[in-house]
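Hey, resending since the last one bounced:
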Amino acid sequence: MGRGRAKAKQTKVARDLKYRTYETDFGALARELHGDEDTSQRSDPTPDDYDDWSDYDAGSSRD
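The C-alpha coordinates again:
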Protein backbone atom coordinates (compact mmCIF):
# COMPACT_ATOMS: atom_id res chain seq x y z
CA MET A 1 0.00 0.00 0.00
CA GLY A 2 1.17 3.52 -0.59
CA ARG A 3 3.07 2.88 -3.82
CA GLY A 4 0.52 4.55 -6.07
CA ARG A 5 2.26 7.88 -6.43
CA ALA A 6 5.73 6.38 -6.70
CA LYS A 7 4.61 3.92 -9.39
CA ALA A 8 2.78 6.67 -11.29
CA LYS A 9 5.90 8.84 -11.23
CA GLN A 10 8.09 5.98 -12.44
CA THR A 11 5.64 5.30 -15.26
CA LYS A 12 5.61 8.98 -16.23
CA VAL A 13 9.42 9.14 -16.28
CA ALA A 14 9.65 5.91 -18.28
CA ARG A 15 7.19 7.20 -20.88
CA ASP A 16 9.04 10.50 -21.05
CA LEU A 17 12.34 8.75 -21.70
CA LYS A 18 10.78 6.41 -24.26
CA TYR A 19 8.84 8.88 -26.40
CA ARG A 20 10.59 12.23 -26.07
CA THR A 21 13.57 12.88 -28.29
CA TYR A 22 16.61 14.63 -26.86
CA GLU A 23 19.54 16.10 -28.71
CA THR A 24 22.63 14.26 -27.49
CA ASP A 25 26.04 15.91 -27.71
CA PHE A 26 28.14 12.84 -28.43
CA GLY A 27 31.33 14.91 -28.58
CA ALA A 28 30.81 16.15 -25.01
CA LEU A 29 29.96 12.63 -23.90
CA ALA A 30 33.17 11.29 -25.46
CA ARG A 31 35.24 14.02 -23.79
CA GLU A 32 33.67 13.23 -20.43
CA LEU A 33 34.23 9.49 -20.78
CA HIS A 34 37.83 9.90 -21.95
CA GLY A 35 38.68 12.36 -19.22
CA ASP A 36 39.55 15.33 -21.41
CA GLU A 37 39.29 18.48 -19.33
CA ASP A 38 37.17 21.29 -20.72
CA THR A 39 38.82 24.58 -19.79
CA SER A 40 35.72 26.70 -20.36
CA GLN A 41 33.98 25.14 -17.37
CA ARG A 42 36.91 25.54 -14.97
CA SER A 43 37.39 29.28 -15.00
CA ASP A 44 37.51 29.70 -11.18
CA PRO A 45 41.04 28.93 -9.88
CA THR A 46 40.07 29.33 -6.19
CA PRO A 47 40.76 26.37 -3.90
CA ASP A 48 37.99 24.25 -2.47
CA ASP A 49 36.16 25.47 0.62
CA TYR A 50 37.16 22.27 2.41
CA ASP A 51 40.85 23.13 2.18
CA ASP A 52 40.38 25.72 4.94
CA TRP A 53 39.02 23.05 7.29
CA SER A 54 41.72 20.43 6.69
CA ASP A 55 43.88 21.69 9.60
CA TYR A 56 41.04 21.09 12.08
CA ASP A 57 41.15 17.34 11.53
CA ALA A 58 44.07 16.49 13.80
CA GLY A 59 43.54 12.76 13.52
CA SER A 60 41.10 12.61 16.40
CA SER A 61 38.99 9.51 16.48
CA ARG A 62 35.58 8.88 17.92
CA ASP A 63 35.82 5.64 19.86
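The mean pLDDT is 76.

Sorry for the duplicate.
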